[in-house]
Amino acid sequence: MRGDDSQEGAAILPGLITLADRIDRLNAAIGRAAAWLALIIVVLQFALVVVRYVLDTGSIWLTETVIYANAALFLLASAWTLSSGGHVRVDVFYAHASARRRAVVDLLGSALLLVPFALVLLFLATPFAARSWAILERSQEASGLPLVFVLKTLIPVFAVMMALQGVAQAIRAMALLSNERKT
Question: Which of 107, 147, 156, 159 could be a cystine partner for 121, CB 3.0 to 4.6 Å?
Fold first, then answer.
């Protein structure tokens, strides 16, 4: 029976790796699109400075647009950053570790920290965003953006993207650990 279990596991692993690849591609596409917000933020912030100091006036909607774009950039690009290895890790445990030890850290980190945190955030943020949609929440400023509900929606979207990336990271770690056991 032990042989059958290993054959089933061998058949499942390629499918899981395909799932991890799809999650990576989805998060990369969203992250690359969101990365353009960095350019928009710079241009709008420059315009705000010019308007403020040259024309001696301000714009609440332009200021809020910069804030919204900044939030969207970080929330939508975080999962892509994680998949690219751009998140800060505890280098004491990770930087000089073997591939096996890194896989164990990734697996435990995903299973015990990242995915549970993302699911709790999703659980808490979804009603928060839903309430905002129910009233089509807008800025408290009279001339502010009427899109607070869209901004709040990015929080559960972030949670889903991070949970999926955590699953992809765990799959890759399990695949590495499984391949090492065979050798």
Answer: 159
Report the C-alpha dihedral over residues 146, 124, 79, 139, rounded to 10 degrees: 10
**Residues 11, 15, 21, 23, CA torsion sign:** negative
Name residues whose C-beta falls within 8 Å of residue 144's C-beta, 6 or more positions apart in sequence: 60, 61, 64, 138
Which tokens sit at 44? 């709008």
Rounded-to-integer distance, Cα 143 and Cα 135, Å: 18
Q: Taking a C-beta distance cutoff of 8 angstroms, is the pair 166, 120 a contact?
A: no
Residue pLDDT, tens place only, 106-132? 999 999 999 999 999 999 999 999 999
Domain membership of residue 19 as a residue range: 2-182
Separation CA 145–CA 62 (nearest Å): 9
Return the pLDDT at 77. Answer: 97
∠ CA(96), CA(98), CA(99), 5° rounding? 125
Whole-model pTM? 0.87
Count CB neighbours of 33 within 10 A: 12
> Average of pLDDT values for 159-174?
97
Which amino acid, 104? V
Q: pLDDT class for 97, splitting at 50, 70, 90?
A: confident
Interatomic CA distance for residues 155 and 4, integer angstroms: 43
DSSP E strand boundaries for 47-118: none
Total tally of structural domains belonging to the chain: 1
